[in-house]
Write a structure and sequence with these properties.
alpha/beta, Rossmann fold, two-stranded antiparallel ribbon, 9 strands, globular
Length: about 300
């Protein structure tokens, strides 16, 4: 074969490789553009659904301070991506029983997606530490109640103190389920193009459709935020065996965020001398607004009253 045909073959091969590379590049670019468009649509939909009030907080998501007793206080924490709205009725029930109740809004939550996207686990933990310290400086009896990630944060702080009366963990998010772990690398890669994705699940977090429609949670997640959430769960797993305060653990068999096997495994981390596990059968993850919410309220109030006393 002469040199010229060989050159022609090499040229044709180079052209074919270039065409394939160009096609792949166009395909990737198209995919990135599509993802960016979807992300923008999602962000606009969230902001239309969650309108900001005059203080820059989503209307209805404001923190709650319900003063009553001068001696007994309860700190109630909402979960990841959610707001005090999800625990408002529980707080009001505790308040009606005579307790002073503090329901703060966690840093980055209940505001814009930009603020949520920049939230950090260190901020959340430090915020709860400071909140508990402020309550304990005034009230001789302080109990902690947390929902989902709020339960993990309560666990971290409860492990650091010996001056609390009771700890209640509601659907505690203490480990990242395997499906979410598998999704995390893809989310991290796409964060720069599409920072937020729908936090989808086959089973909704709230089974009651009326309560679900009232929810003020963002309903989105990002790769970076999953890392922050994972950090909180790891801290909580290390902290829980050190908790000595009487601990109540409420789990749901229909929890779309915490599978039953994960809840059972995480319960074994609780080694407080006085502890109890209760299972619910008709609620989703946000059990404080779902079908069995009044059962939740009764369980929480009974536990707090048992170990802190009834405020007078």
């Amino acid at each position: 074969m002469s040199a010229r045909p060989r050159v022609r073959i090499r040229t044709e091969r180079s052209r074919a490789v270039w065409l394939v590379a160009a096609a792949l590049g166009v395909g990737v670019l198209g995919l990135l553009v599509r993802e960016r468009v979807h992300a923008r649509r999602l962000e606009r939909a969230v902001h239309r659904r969650l309108r900001l009030g005059p203080q820059g907080i989503v209307a209805g998501a404001e923190p709650l301070w319900l003063p009553a007793s001068a001696t007994h206080a309860v700190l109630v924490l909402h979960g990841f991506g959610d707001t005090p709205q999800s625990v408002r009725e529980l707080a009001e029930s505790l308040h009606a029983s005579g307790y002073t109740v503090d329901v703060p809004l966690l840093p980055g939550h209940g505001r814009t997606l930009v603020e949520f996207g920049g939230a950090q686990s260190e901020q959340w933990v430090a915020f709860v530490r400071e909140r508990v310290a402020r309550l304990r400086a005034v009230y001789p009896h302080v109990s902690l109640v947390g929902l989902s990630m709020g339960a993990a944060l309560c666990s971290i702080v409860a492990a650091e103190r010996d001056d609390l009366d009771a700890l209640v963990l509601l659907a505690p998010y203490l480990s990242v389920p395997q499906p979410v772990q598998r999704m995390a690398p893809l989310l991290r890669i796409s964060d720069q193009v599409a920072p937020f994705r729908l936090s989808a699940a086959s089973i909704p977090s709230i089974q009651d459709p009326i309560a679900r429609a009232r929810g003020l949670g963002f309903g989105v997640v990002s790769g970076r935020l999953l890392r922050e959430l994972s950090t909180v769960t790891q801290l909580a797993q290390r902290a829980l065996p050190k908790v000595t305060v009487p601990t109540l653990y409420l789990a749901s068999r229909h929890d779309s965020r915490v599978p039953t096997e994960d809840a059972a495994r995480n319960w074994r981390l609780v080694t407080a001398p006085i502890r109890a596990l209760r299972w619910l059968d008709g609620s989703g993850h946000i059990m404080t607004v779902d079908y069995e919410k009044h059962t939740v309220f009764e369980e929480v109030e009974d536990w707090v009253a048992r170990f802190s006393g009834v405020p007078t």
